[in-house]
Write a structure and sequence with these properties.
With 113 residues, the chain is mainly alpha-helical. The chain is built from five helices and two strands. The longest helix is centred in the N-terminal third of the chain and has 22 residues. The N and C termini lie far apart (45 Å).
Length: 113
């Protein structure tokens, strides 16, 4: 009787742990999908003016030196289009290096498995 009770408890604990892990989302690391650029941009554009300036960029915890790499037209603001272009450059670089592309697949592209 004790063996049955122990087996039932162990099974219940295993199921509970599996459910808890499933709720946490994907594991960190190279296989994790990045949020869509639109979602990231919404979080970073603190004042909602449609552009991310350097203060918003650093306020979102981004390294100051990377701002210039994303601000393609050097106007002191990052637009959604500039962020999308930077994501695409990163995706292309990753694919050339043989790694999984960061972020979600481009619109209209089949999902990657």
């Amino acid at each position: 009787m004790r063996r049955i009770l122990l087996a039932a408890l162990a099974t219940g604990a295993t199921l509970a742990a599996g459910a808890a892990l499933a709720q946490e989302g994907p594991p960190p690391g190279p296989m994790r999908q990045m949020p869509a650029p639109e979602d990231i941009f919404k979080r970073w554009d603190a004042n909602g003016d449609g552009a991310v300036d350097k203060a918003e960029w650093t306020g979102a915890g981004r390294p100051e030196d990377r701002f210039a790499m994303i601000d393609a037209d050097k106007d002191g603001k990052v637009t959604l289009d500039e962020l999308k272009a930077a994501f695409e450059k990163m995706r292309q670089r990753r694919m050339q290096q043989g790694g999984p592309p960061p972020g979600p697949p481009p619109e209209g592209a089949p999902p990657q498995n």
